[in-house]
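ok trying this again, last paste got cut off
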Amino acid sequence: MTEPNVVPEVAQETPEDEGQGRSTIRFPYLDQDDAVKLAKAIHSVAGNSCSRDALAAYLKVSAKAGGFNLRTGTAKMFGLIESDKGLFSLTDLGKRVIDPKQEKAARADSFLLIPLYKRIFDQYRNQMLPANPALEKAMEQMGVAPKQADKARQAFQRSATQAGYFAFGTDRLIAPQGTQPQAEAPPPPLEEKPGKGGQGGNGGDPPHNNPFIQGLLSKLPPEDAVWSTDQRKKWLQLAISVFEVSYKTAENDIGELSVTLTKTSAN
């Protein structure tokens, strides 16, 4: 059984109004500043997590309003918050973005969690971006519905500015200087027995140099440990986000990965 509060929020992340058509790649209509403001609102209400009703009251909106769902859905897509049974919590990235000393790097990482933005960044890396009409056409080829392309392009440009990718001009995406992705609690290097030829004294290189992958693997519990299905679901959802950032999608891929937990009753 799926979580009742998650479904409507996710549906608001890429609105599909009647007559607009359906996009096949995820992107927000709001920008990164909206997502960061919501993360900071959660921190202002109760630290790292708060109830849906408390957050809505702080923002002076209805918890059932579509605009509220749109804002929380946007913050989720940027990887800043997560929700479970009516409770909103800051992710590790969300905790970084509310810290003034880490906000710049966190914004840079967050920007590339949006599948559309990561696709554009990869396609036009070290190249000039096309003019707005051509950029919208490129977005359509990536999976944005034609009638949504204008709004998608505007939100993309606002977020790119806010995340620091337009620091050298709006005609190209440049990753902010000094904002290499950082993984939380990277795994320790493997211990090697002394006397192994060619290994040196540092245990050799880690099995994977990507900090996102290292951080993901560090979240795995020890072998034979108790690991609930809810916790496994959250790890798999995190893995999907990491894969979006770390790997390119094949041109003929259709749809997106998702994780669903089906709870069965004991007989």
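PB: full thing came through this time. The two ends are 17 Å apart (CA to CA).
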